[in-house]
Amino acid sequence: QIQDQLFAFNQIAYAQGAPSSGQVAFFTDSTHLNGDNGLFWDNTNKKLTAENIQIGSSVEDINLLRDAAGILAQRSGIIAQGFKIYHTFTNSSNYTNMEERWTTKFSTRVFEIATNFAGTGEAADVNIYPSTGKLSVDPGTIRAVIEARTSNTLGAALVIKQFMTASTDRVIGSLYFVETGGTAVASIVARHPSATAGQAYLQFLTSQTERIRVDASGNVGIGTTTPQSLLQVASNYIQFPAISGAAPAAVDCDATAEAGRMVVRTDGAANLYICAGVGGWISK
Questions:
Q1: Span 80-99, pLDDT tens digits
Q2: Exposure of 112 by Cβ count < 10 A (0-12 exposed, 13-18 middle, 19+ buried)?
């Protein structure tokens, strides 16, 4: 008897055997109660355990599922599992959505994180493709696709790593600038010439051709891939801007640390001045 009403308890109708401790009973009609081993109440820990829980009844609402691996959330009406959180404090249309979905013809499963802030233009979409390990980021109208920040002065905000297993020349990190249509117009590539640690070098490419090489020792080559000096320019001219005026000031070339300075002046007498350190300027 519940609140002065009489109900018949139908034990035979139990879906999974006799009632168990903590099993939750529910009405099957206006006068009968039933139960199921898929629905339990843990009064000690104040926890409800169920095979399936649906919150709401529309397509956009959430079903909670339990399987051997843990708790999942599934949006009903689509082939996907995930969470959709509405930010009602700003706008009922604003949401963050995290779900696993199948693409056309169910050929590829992806994990998607999507946000939509109505009226702000700050929609974003992140897709992770488990079969290939690729990450796709579409920031909408945001100024940058990926922005990495850190307050740790001893660490980096963004790190690219590859663990070498072979001694051959291999790419260990790269940054490509690609135009519409898929053509790489520029790139920065880090390569490892061998399995020896700390021997990586950098390549700077435009139009898919290497223009600058920075080797493992810090030598910079422009037009050459094997620089022999701290800076080596090959196959073309080095040009300094011509500065109008008289010879450079003596005070700018009177110390050993200033040796090697060069400047071009259009004073009518000499055009190229090379600093000899304490020996002063040498004109050519």
A1: 555 555 555 555 556 666 66
A2: middle
Model confidence, pTM? 0.53
Q: Name the residue among 215, 235, 238 with its Cα closest to residue 225.
A: 215
Q: Where are the domains of the chain?
A: 8-50, 55-138, 170-233, 242-283
Burial of 275 (0-12, 13-18, 19+ CB in 10 A): buried
**Single-letter residue type at 215:** D
Residue 237: which residues within 8 A CB-CB, separation 6 or more?
A: none
Give 191-239 pLDDT, tens digit per residue.
Answer: 888 766 777 899 999 988 999 999 999 999 999 999 999 999 997 888 8
